[in-house]
Model the fold of this input.
Amino acid sequence: MASSSVSRLVKHIRMQDDVALVRATQNHAAASAVIPPPVLDIPSDDAFSVIVQLQDFRHHKLWRGQRLVHAGGHRLGDMAITDLREQWRCQHLSDYDNVRLHLPRASLERVSEEGGRRIGALQQVQAIRDPVVWHLLHAMLPALTGAANDSDTVYLDSVTLALHTHLAQRYGGQPVGRGGGTGLAGWQQVRAREYMLSHLARRLTLAEIAAECGISRAHFARAFKHSFGLPPHAWLQRQRVELACRLLRQSDKGMTAIALECGFSDQSHFSRVFKQIQGMGPAAWLRAQG
Done:
């Protein structure tokens, strides 16, 4: 009997509150006869797993305890939420490519409490479509492919916060907050601005900036955008690019040195963000200045 081989690739990053983002890919290479893959026990944890398929997943089986709860496929974009405290087993019977959010219960409780009401559980679902989760997880995919860097921590924090909020409201029963709201107080605007500008060169988190203003991450993110017209991560990137423009004009430092001084992880990251904001790369921008 011919044997089969499996190639599996897992990439992951860990964010605040032990939230983890994982991309898992598995490819089966087989001859005419295929040995059935094993049934795997999913490690239990006091956490939720949110999985979104990045390609059609033709066939797999999923058990909760001894009960088969799913046998079949998932389409591109399908989402599943599982409570990892329960006993889960799975059998992957075809190729797959998906992205997974590992969300500890303690993190869900803490962030949802910031939003107004503590949520300790999420509704478990299989093979449903949620465009909000799809777009938010896609916004974080560059962090798994090397297209984003550690200096994008405020961005990842912001997207993770948005995911927390949506999941708590859609699948946890948390009331949807009213739109609008108020901005930061005057002293908070000054403190947030000064703190972010004085730490452009290092990795910042949304939590530490919010702490400087004495408010929660959720409140800070909403109020900052109301006051400054941009989310914190977008405002921060613009300040980094403005500093880079001054250094390009006024110094003879190399691109790598400028990138690091402005808080970018490397020259590639610097060039990419600079082009997004200025419409051209740093070298072309400098030539255009005459």
Q: What stands out?
A: Residues 239-288 form a domain with the Arc Repressor Mutant, subunit A fold (CATH 1.10.10.60). The first helix runs from residue 105 to 114.
